[in-house]
Amino acid sequence: MIGASAANPRPRPCFIYGNIAFAELGEPWAIYRLAPQSYAGLSTGRKREVMGQLEGFLQRTQADIQILRIARPWSVRDYIASTWQTFDRRHGGEEEIARREEGFKTLLHSHALAMEDRQIVRPDVYLAIRLHGSAGGVEELLGGDRLRQLWRRLSTVVGVSDARGLRYSELTEIERVERRTQERVLDYLECQRALGSEIAWLVRHAYLRGLGEPVLEHNFRPQALAIENEKGEELGFEPCQWDLLRLHTDHRVRIARRHLEIESERGVSYQAALVCGALPEEREFPGPEAELMFNPVDLEFPVDACLHCEFVPNRDAQRLARKRMVDADELWREEASSEHGASPDTEDRPAEARALQRRLGEGDHPPLLRSALTYMVCSSDGLEDLEERIERLRSEVGQRIELHRPIGAQHDLFLATLPAQGMGLSAYREHLLPEEVAAMVPTASSHAGSEIGPYIGHTLTPSRQPVRLDLAEPAQEDLPTPLLFTGKQGSGKTTAMQLVEHQAFWQGSDPIVDIDPRGTPEEPDHRIHLIPEVEAETELIVLSGEERYRGLIDPLRIAPEEIRGDTAFGFAVELLPEPVPAPWQTEIRAAVEVVCADLERDQVLGEVVEELKKGNEAAVEAGRALSVHANAGLAKLAFGLPGREVAEVGKRRVISLQIKALELPSPGTPRSEMSALERLGTALLRLIAMYALRLCTARRDRHSVCAMGEAWVLFNSNVGRSLLDRMARFGRFQNVTPLLDTQLLTDAEAIRPLIGAVMSGGVKTPEEARAVLELHGLDEDPQQIQRLMSYERGRFLFTDYHGQSVPMYVDPCDPRSRATFGTTPPPRAQTGAPVLQEAASEP
Q1: Quick check: helix, strand or coil at residue 431?
Q2: Phi/psi of residue 462, each to 5°?
Q3: Which residues pair with 272 in a beta bridge?
Q4: Mean pLDDT of 88-96
Q5: Interhelix angle for 76-83 vs 94-115, to 10°?
Q6: Are 507 and 491 in contact (CB under 8 A)?
Q7: How far is 812 from 456, CA to CA, in rounded Å?
Q8: How far apart are CA 714 and CA 484, in angstroms?
Q9: In the prediction, which pLDDT does 30 show?
Q10: Please, which of 552, 603, 737, 781 could form a disulfide with 471 given CB 3.0 to 4.6 Å?
């Protein structure tokens, strides 16, 4: 059934030409696909920016529009197929690739099991704009819709025009107007022209709501017959409208009093149309009563929304406002003279009408938009489930907004949700200002993460949108690569970091260097190497003061050439007891420069000591002090001797670096309050990070990962920030993604430009929450601060590499990974259960 009388069947729309759909041949609409904007995790200030963009667009467009927000089914099968595209088959032998394929397949299977019971949908947003300037002539001068329609009919009857055909000159003018229209849209919104096949898909989708994804016919092209004059010259064409009937005739529509039953090969789709009633005069933004196209359609079941807006110029809008003001005054006088006086609503109406009149008279001269918002609720499980979903939608919209379910008009409302259609029921239209329509935020979404990549969790919204992350994405798209994990102890940041490491392992990243500064072989903090498949390819290195590791992380050996001297000097000064005499610093700096300049000498700190021995008294004293302190304990790791061979490590795919007896201060401890061992610990950890980065950049043709705990040591010194800057700038072409884990943030403003993506767990204090919001590029907002302080284990605020933010839950789907990565002891009830059972069995 096509939604028209049997005597005069016609498709809706009647013709499609590129991204131009004709409701009738004289009524062209340009259709665009809008890019959804990540919205759920934004602060109030950023949400107002999104609304401001939409408001600017609505004020400038000066045309009738239709916005379709489509709940498009998200396919787990498509997820698996697209995620396989991130699997790297270019490296390794056949046996390794086969082993990784099997492991990756198991990983994706666990993801599929976690998502199979969810009805996941993703919003697609389409914008249709009526191309007013394309009509020309008398039709354009008439202005109103009804007058234009009457003129078209009259001109057809008297032979002035032919309603069946289009002249090439008309089509050229339509295309010119469409190009100008797209330029106006692009000034405010990111959009692309919709394909003709997409417009056809929108029609098919309307019939199959709740039943799955309709087939997208990429080769679909509506046909037309050429119109020739007596000389055989082509003047235009007549669309063959019957070939659009295929979009409708596969379905049978049963029209009930308050719902539709649409039968197709996929089954029966039960649908109901609900129209938004009168809006409260005062609505808080952001809030559910204002965000009418975002909150209701982010539910756990699919809901489509269709917004119709007819443009009312400011001059006409002011006349309407004056009439509203007169009517409000008359009503107030009538009720005020009655026995009980005027009601509270009547008392408020004159002031509200005058406020509207003042707004319309302001300098920007805003128009009014005669608007109607329709929701399409669907179910494939019958009427009972449909009614439950309708009540759930009503509760989400709120008690102050009525959702009408017009009796006998369900099919008309259904047809109005097809592309390039106007709102048929005028009784439900309401005059709104552009800012009121923009507050509905039709482009808002709850999505963040990579377009393709493994599943890492879901958003903290009823729809539980999947969040995906491909660590190789930023390097491929020339974005800063570091990913920072923050949060209080027990927030789950270490588990989240190991989860993405594990997925990168199966994707083919090599090497994966993991720095565990707090763990020991007996009680590791980072446990990725305990996964059996990973353990088989892991090289576990426990760094200590043993002679075999002497000089492994000597700064002159591992630091990049351009910062080699600064790194060596900085470590030498940190190694010595404070305060370091100024003459000593001068001599050490000079000796380091001499060694760096002489490429014939071994590039190790032992050569610096030898050079100091040749100098004056201050140089000799500095060399002796440096030698004494550098030859004790863990300091040997950074003090290489001339002629001494250094142990070679890093031959396997996963390199786990643990540091035995490393002393680190509490995060945030001022350097002046650190002990000598703590200063040495922070200096060594920075060198280990530099060494790990060197291991990762040995092969640029293969993506690698460098994961580091206690990353705050990079933030509180010039040497550490220099290293972090190198990670951000060179990680792109070196094809390495650093993963940084820290409890405390210091100087978020300085760190933010160096970080590509951030995942922040719970915090303890409002000050920490403000630093987190600054790091995410979000405004301080009381609700966001309270949300961050309430986050429990596994809940994060995630800002991806493209700046999209969402609150999310990290979900290690594989039970084995969940048990391995977690460091929390089992609950007391689990360990005590057998004892309690034995006690219960005693008499």
Answers
A1: strand
A2: -55, -35
A3: 377
A4: 86
A5: 160
A6: no
A7: 7
A8: 12
A9: 96
A10: 737
Q: Crossing angle for the helix pair 564-575 and 676-696, nearest 10 degrees?
A: 160
C-alpha Rg value of the chain to the nearest Å: 34
Higher pLDDT, 93 or 650: 93
- The neighbouring-strand residues paired with 260 are 255, 271
Residue-wise pLDDT for 565-581, tens only, equals: 888 898 888 888 888 89
Rounded distance between C-alpha atoms, residue 297 and residue 281, angstroms: 23
Report the C-alpha gap between 324 and 345 in whole angstroms: 14
CB 178 within 8 A of CB 20: yes
Contact 197, 216 (CB under 8 A): yes
Decide: 28 and 13 in contact? Cβ < 8 Å: no
Give the pLDDT confidence score for residue 823 in this predicted structure: 63
Sign of the C-alpha dihedral computed for residues 408, 412, 415 and 417 taken in this order = negative
Alpha helix stretches (DSSP H) within 298-453: 314-336, 344-360, 383-397, 410-416, 434-438
Q: Which of 576, 660, 655 is nearest to 618 (CA)?
A: 576
* pLDDT tens per residue across span 778-825: 888 888 899 999 999 999 999 999 989 999 999 988 777 777 776 665
Q: What is the pLDDT of residue 140?
A: 46
Q: Is the sign of the CA dihedral 231, 234, 236, 242 positive or negative? A: positive
Q: Which among 256, 278, 280, 277 has a CA at the least distance from the CA of 268?
A: 256
Mapped onto helix, strand or coil, the DSSP state of residue 337 is coil
Provide the whole-model pTM: 0.82
Contacts of residue 646, defined as CB under 8 A and 6 or more positions apart, other chains included, come to: 550, 551, 552, 554, 557, 640
Q: Flag whether pLDDT at 615 surpasses 80.
A: yes
User: Which H or E element spans position 268?
Assistant: strand 267-276
Distance CA 535, CA 521 (A): 13
The CA-based angle 122-127-128, given to 5 degrees, is 140
pLDDT value for 761: 93
| pLDDT, position 818 | 74
Q: How many helices (H) and strands (E) does the chain have?
A: 27, 29
- Region of 762 please: left (phi>0), alpha (psi -120 to 50) or beta: beta
Q: Quick check: helix, strand or coil at residue 464? A: coil
Predicted local confidence at residue 838, as pLDDT: 37
Rounded CA-CA distance 464/298 in Å is: 9
Contact 128, 420 (CB under 8 A): yes
Residue 739 backbone dihedrals phi, psi, to 5 degrees? -110, 120
Provide φ and ψ at 577, rounded to 5°.
-65, 145
CA-wise closest residue to 273 among 414, 67, 383: 414
Distance CA 368, CA 673 (A): 64
